[in-house]
Amino acid sequence: MRKSSNIRLTSRQLSEQQQNSPEKLVSWMGAMQAQDFNMAKWAIAIRLNSYTEQEIEEAFNRGDFLRTHIMRPTWHFVSSEDIRWLLKLTGGRIQSAWKYAKDLKIEEQELMKCYRLLEHTIYSN
Length: 125
What we know:
125 residues
């Protein structure tokens, strides 16, 4: 049991940090739950030896990694370098999950405005 728990801590970058930047860590993880933005920044910080909350937020603000609905209608951090193939992989599932927007009576033009903003953000990187 002890050995498997050490493997788990290591594989999640908690006992042996192998990455040296927020963007490399997020990329290595594939995706990180980011529903609570502050706690998600903390999840990155505990996996890096020398980054402050401010430095992690600066990396986020630069677009080094993104916060998006990539797997389900909850927030995740993902690598800005991986966003295109991740969207191709999961986009259909996410679009079907957004059908509840109709139930909320969000007008299609407002929804399309949001989609265009997301596209602009994604493809301008």
